[in-house]
Design goal:
The chain has 346 residues and is α+β, with helices and mostly antiparallel strands. The protein folds into 2 domains: 136 residues, no CATH class; 162 residues, Heat Shock Protein 90 (2-Layer Sandwich), CATH 3.30.565.10. The protein contains 8 helices and 10 strands. The strands form 3 sheets. The chain has a 5-stranded mixed beta sheet, covered by helices on one side. A 3-stranded antiparallel beta sheet has the order 3-5-10. A hairpin with a 2-residue loop joins strand 1 and strand 2.
Length: 346
Amino acid sequence: MWKRKKSNWEFAKEIFFQLGLIAVVLTFYSYEKHEGTGHFTLDFPTLTIFINYVSAAILINYLLLPKFLYPKKYIHFTFYSLLIIAAVIAIEEGIIEQIFYPDTRAKTFPDVFNNLFTAMPIITILVGFKFAWDALHQQRQLEALESAIKESELQFLKSQINPHFLFNNLNNLYSYALEQSPKTPEIILELSGVLRYMLYECKEETVPLEKEIQQLKNFVNLSKLQLEERGNVHFVQPELHSGYRIAPLILSVFIENAFKHSASSQHNNIDISINLSWRSDGVLEFVCDNTYSENSNTESLSKGIGLENVKKRLMLLYPEQHQLSITQDKNRFKVILTLQLETDKP
């Protein structure tokens, strides 16, 4: 804990903060009330006593806190803190009072408790604010680390999605090429458009909804080539609402999964339905429903890299802002996803 060194700018900001705090505390310390009136008494003896307290706080802040308190060596921290406070009182009574108040305070019986009650609030304030400053600095470090981890995981998941999609479609392209199918150029054209979107337009965390829906249409057109004349595909989209953004490639994984399992498990009568609709307040509902054969691949429908990745991405990008339902009923596999979309930032 508290291991990363602070930058020069962070250290400079802390120094300015500490100097300002010391000035404020000194102002209150040197303010005295007499018979209902108040005035400041900042003489050299008062300043010397205050510097004695500040020196103790500096030792605790920059020596004991990082060396003992933050590593959770509480016994050592308590022992050395008490030792420093005892030294502060001893210096005040044995040196400062003897020099500046030889005829008054120095001649009286050592008033340890009175000096302690004067010193402790000042030292506690200075140490407390230092602890709060370090806690705030640590919280910012943790937030930056969490953000970096989240971004790294998202980039890793997206890097898995693209090769997963490419691998499946290159296999289809290879099959058409072997058969010298006239659809091969069309497949290459559709594939290049989808890959262009993935490579160049999906670098940000979110993309305009219009672009993502257009990408889905291209994706569906490409995937329909796998079916030949073996079934039907229905794609229904809502009236586009400009200004909304969505995480790229979130929905295409479910569509890819539907085509893959329908095409691999059925020779005919394939039925795939994709429906996007608005509910309210920027909530997008996505429903993907496809047929499959129970005798072929029912064990793998809810598994695979693609689905696992998109579930993780949803948890990272839309925490408490999405609902995902995946069901298998007889010969149909159905995905229902609702997303609370964000609007473009002004």
